[in-house]
């Protein structure tokens, strides 16, 4: 009530806002979006979500910069999956059928659905270990003959 009366009487103090820190542009730089692993799961989720899509929260996996997209908090038992060592994380992530499970310093989990590599290629996080696999096309004898006829 006192503040309202000061404003109404024209006697409220006026403190100019400093120019330093008056913009959010600095946080939009890729180098400022690296995931800091010494936080609880909720903070990791908010960091990833807050940088989703631009510039993208990132970390280093197997010497390569990988950007996380599409996170959600996971409130369940630890799912089965293949371990993935993440630089700076106190605990390996788990590549599961639903995505990459990462752990906060409180032991709680975050599920990341998509990963983007330095070359721009984006994959579902659940396909991390199968991303580099390519299968050779094997033709039957009939298909080989047809291929020769076409040539």
UniProtKB/TrEMBL annotation:
<dbReference type="InterPro" id="IPR005793">
    <property type="entry name" value="Formyl_trans_C"/>
</dbReference>
<feature type="domain" description="Formyl transferase C-terminal">
    <location>
        <begin position="29"/>
        <end position="130"/>
    </location>
</feature>
<dbReference type="GO" id="GO:0003824">
    <property type="term" value="F:catalytic activity"/>
</dbReference>
<protein>
    <submittedName>
        <fullName>AL1L2 dehydrogenase</fullName>
    </submittedName>
</protein>
<dbReference type="InterPro" id="IPR011034">
    <property type="entry name" value="Formyl_transferase-like_C_sf"/>
</dbReference>
<dbReference type="Pfam" id="PF02911">
    <property type="entry name" value="Formyl_trans_C"/>
</dbReference>
<dbReference type="InterPro" id="IPR037022">
    <property type="entry name" value="Formyl_trans_C_sf"/>
</dbReference>
